[in-house]
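Budget justification aside, the reviewers requested a transparent look at the raw inputs and outputs of the sequence design task funded under Objective 1. We therefore reproduce one unedited record. The lines immediately below are the structure tokens for a 635-residue chain.
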């Protein structure tokens, strides 16, 4: 097969050029990424041999080699792992297989400092391409286990790369960097120096379970003699060491390795179960949400090991969808090495670990809420929307999820509240936890539904996340207090004494408006199921409300967007009996019930209430024409 020349994708070319020509305060990330890739290749080969009894591969000495040549200014990272085929090289190395590349480029351009740029590199998992930060040319030679021919990939990062066959390549992958010219003013970036390589390995890759080997630094008296080969990492898994043996820095580096994030984790969680079923877990809560957290193809789960043998990335059976942001490692002692994702879904031990891991994470969040409110506030800002998804799927832990959830409320525009704190502040005699869903805080606060609650000083939860529209329908109460939407059903905020005072007045209003209410219910029957007097309005003339068990318009739209058929739901029009406009309608109805102008006024009143509720008019042009005609008559 002759040498093939390919062009990088446009976005890949732009990314390479930005890496090559940008200045980063810490370029060491490239070596961490190359070692991580090599470690993954060794894990995959070990697993393949364990699963395939007929595999003929020698796995007695799996390791990573780092070689430097000061004279030629080259650095090579070599492994004897799974390797890659020709197609693997073209697909995995020749392109950046990441749907977020364009967004990454935009954010990289907008990054205002070097630290922000470094964070983005780790966040988007650029990995192999980070080599071009320090190299003028990168050569990759690889042979996949079980194949007889290898492949060479080479590029200077200037827009093209070449791929050609290699006859005598050893199994595994070797990445050789022709380093950029040495900066004599900055010895910190001398990547041909053994001490510099050791420093990077110790900082980023000390926990890698495979030996990382390199030749000791040459001495003047060596006179060309072979240098001693030494292992430069400890190879001791952090989750297998006691808490006192591990530093916070080591935990952070393990997190960065398993998550491909560049920032430190927000929280570290250790677990160790002993007895009939033993396992160890080291979990991390990130300090920020990844860009693809809500993307359809987002990977979730933690790494699964069995007796320190890597089994799989992203073990979904260990972590529910709503905790997909949690990263880490779980090492089980009693599972079979020859397991698949399908088998794991049914495995009783995996299910038991799943339950315990979830409870441990939720209890950690509860402790964080009380012990470190600032850290909890960061968590909730980044992952609150995701955690609330558990209210729809995890019935066993629903109370625990509610207990660690926070919500915006009318009490404080800056600080969210927990349901526990809300209940403790409830007014004497208040039986319900009041809430309202909507697109934004400002939209809810300006809604007519809020008027009576503001006037009487009742706190209302302001729920603006899309998931809020769904979970409130399935969570009936908290701590014995029912949740009630202020935009549904009847609202009664009066105390017992107030009820006695206004009872006679309300009965009189009901009698006075009975004719108008009946007529409007008939007139607007295509749009509303009932027209009634309101106890929730103090300023606005009318508002639209739903029956207690009706789906909200926003929820109905969500179901339609998912392809589900939703029947048309008629809602209720409530009138404010103290508003001059409503009283004018009552008077006009009493004098001229069949007058067309009264019908138009009723239609306009309904339209205004619908718009105030964020709804859509069925015939906007007719509404505008009627409004214009009314305004003209007043001039």
């Amino acid at each position: 097969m002759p040498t093939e020349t390919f062009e990088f994708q446009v976005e890949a070319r732009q990314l390479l050029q930005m890496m090559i020509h940008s200045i980063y305060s810490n370029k060491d990330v490239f070596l961490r990424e190359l070692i991580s890739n090599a470690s993954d290749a060794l894990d995959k080969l070990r697993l393949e041999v364990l699963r395939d009894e007929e595999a003929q591969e020698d796995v007695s000495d799996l390791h990573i080699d780092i070689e430097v040549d000061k004279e030629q200014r080259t650095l090579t990272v070599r492994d004897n792992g799974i390797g890659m085929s020709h197609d693997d090289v073209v697909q995995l190395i020749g392109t950046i297989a990441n749907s977020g590349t364009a967004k990454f480029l935009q954010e990289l351009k907008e990054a205002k400092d070097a630290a922000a740029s470094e964070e983005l590199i780790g966040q988007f998992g650029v990995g192999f391409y980070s080599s071009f930060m320090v190299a003028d040319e990168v050569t990759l030679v690889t042979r996949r286990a079980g194949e007889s021919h290898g492949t060479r990939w080479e590029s200077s990062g200037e827009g093209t790369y070449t791929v050609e066959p290699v006859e005598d390549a050893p199994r595994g992958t070797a990445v050789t960097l022709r380093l950029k010219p040495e900066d004599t003013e900055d010895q910190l970036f001398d990547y041909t120096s053994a001490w510099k390589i050791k420093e990077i390995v110790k900082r980023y890759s000390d926990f890698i379970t495979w030996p990382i080997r390199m030749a000791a630094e040459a001495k003047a008296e060596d006179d060309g003699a072979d240098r001693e080969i030494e292992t430069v990492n400890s190879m001791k898994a952090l989750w297998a060491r006691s808490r006192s043996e591990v530093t916070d820095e080591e935990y952070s580096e393990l997190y960065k390795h398993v998550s491909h994030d560049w920032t430190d984790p927000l929280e570290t969680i250790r677990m160790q179960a002993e007895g009939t079923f033993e396992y160890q877990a080291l979990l991390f809560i990130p300090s920020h949400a990844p860009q693809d957290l809500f993307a359809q193809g987002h990977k979730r789960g933690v790494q699964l090991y069995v007796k320190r043998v890597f089994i799989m990335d992203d073990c979904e059976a260990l972590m529910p969808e709503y905790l997909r942001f949690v990263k880490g490692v779980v090492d089980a002692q009693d599972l079979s090495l020859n397991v698949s994702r399908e088998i794991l879904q049914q495995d009783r031990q995996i299910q038991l670990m799943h339950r315990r891991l979830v409870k441990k994470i939720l209890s950690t969040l509860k402790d964080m809420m009380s012990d470190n409110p600032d850290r909890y506030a960061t968590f909730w800002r980044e992952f609150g929307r995701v955690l609330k998804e558990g209210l729809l799927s995890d019935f066993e832990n629903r109370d625990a999820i509610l207990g660690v959830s926070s919500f915006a409320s009318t009490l404080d525009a800056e600080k969210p509240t927990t349901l526990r704190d809300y209940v403790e502040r409830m007014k004497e005699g208040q039986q319900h936890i009041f809430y309202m869903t909507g697109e934004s805080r400002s939209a809810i606060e300006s809604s007519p539904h809020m008027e009576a609650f503001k006037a009487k000083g009742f706190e209302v939860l302001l729920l603006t996340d899309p998931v809020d529209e769904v979970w409130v329908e399935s969570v009936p109460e908290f701590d014995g207090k029912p949740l009630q939407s202020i935009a549904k059903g009847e609202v009664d905020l009066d105390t017992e004494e107030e009820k006695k005072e206004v009872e006679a007045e309300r009965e009189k209003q009901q009698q006075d408006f009975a004719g108008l209410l009946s007529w409007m219910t008939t007139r607007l029957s295509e749009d509303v199921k009932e027209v009634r007097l309101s106890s929730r309005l103090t300023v606005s003339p009318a508002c639209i409300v739903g029956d207690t068990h009706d789906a909200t318009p926003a929820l109905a739209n969500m179901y339609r967007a998912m392809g589900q058929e939703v029947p048309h739901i008629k809602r209720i029009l409530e009138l404010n009996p103290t508003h001059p406009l409503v009283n004018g309608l009552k008077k006009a109805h009493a004098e001229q019930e069949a007058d067309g102008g009264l019908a138009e006024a009723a239609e306009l009143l309904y339209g205004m209430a619908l718009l105030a509720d964020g709804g859509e008019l069925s015939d906007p042009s007719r509404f505008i024409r009627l409004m214009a005609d009314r305004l003209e008559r007043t001039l």
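Confidence is low (pLDDT under 50) at residues 119-125. The first helix runs from residue 10 to 21. Computational costs for records of this kind are itemized in the attached budget.
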